[in-house]
Amino acid sequence: MENNGKKLRHHFVLVHGLCHGAWCWYKVATVLESAGHGVTALDLPGCGASAVRAEEVRSFEEYSRPLLRAVAAAPPGEKVVLVGHSFGGHNLALAMEAHPEKVAVAIFVSAPMPVAGRPMSAILEQHLQGDSAPHSFLDCTFGIVETGSEDPAETFLVGPEWMSQRMYQLSPPEDLTLARMLARPAQMFLRDEAMTGEKVLTEGRYGAVTRVFVVAEEDKTWPAEEQRRVAASCGPGVEVRAIGGVDHMPMFSKPEELAQVIMEVAEKYS
């Protein structure tokens, strides 16, 4: 890969979480690009600057399509480094299953890391129903939107107070303000076939890709101990790294440190 005649060391593909967009990576992307790396930060359908509305996205595969296309477009012999935040871990898993030969390593940043042979939705459902689930979603909103099909779209939108108390409590106030302005409703696709199928992720493809889990130590959305349990459930081959003093949004609370971890992982496994 070249940029103005200069060979780039790695190509990072950054995937956002629910209700967010490519904009949430602006600090990390700047650090990576300044170090000479290639960066693709994606807006998934219905998110960020996408012209699509959340309820218009018919399936999780359609929601993941920009990522699938980006990975498939990697030139022969080259591999990308995938980085997914929060719900974006599910998108990473689908891309790893589809194109394992094009992924050098996948980095899950406070993101569900599915287990091969189990539904991708299992971790999310366990979190939403388990003892560690939040007792209240505060001002988050859930919606039902009729789409003309048998199943209406179920949307979720993080609320300003939730973001302030649970997601961005250690992040700069200007980044919280930015997020409040740009957050959009999103779907979790909990009943989607790609999320519920036990044979969607296989050990021979998804499981063959090197995976690294980055724990956010002060995460109030998804406790650090639960993150570690999820990483451990994927087997001894998963490397776990941790960043202290960060909330659920380490790309804002400690962007330079997160970028450094990402670059170290890429250098180790590429």
Automatic annotation (TrEMBL):
InterPro entries: AB_hydrolase_1, AB_hydrolase_fold, MES/HNL. Residues 12-260 form the AB hydrolase-1 domain. GO terms for molecular function: methyl indole-3-acetate esterase activity; methyl jasmonate esterase activity; methyl salicylate esterase activity. This is AB hydrolase-1 domain-containing protein. GO terms for biological process: jasmonic acid metabolic process; salicylic acid metabolic process. It holds the Pfam family Abhydrolase_6.
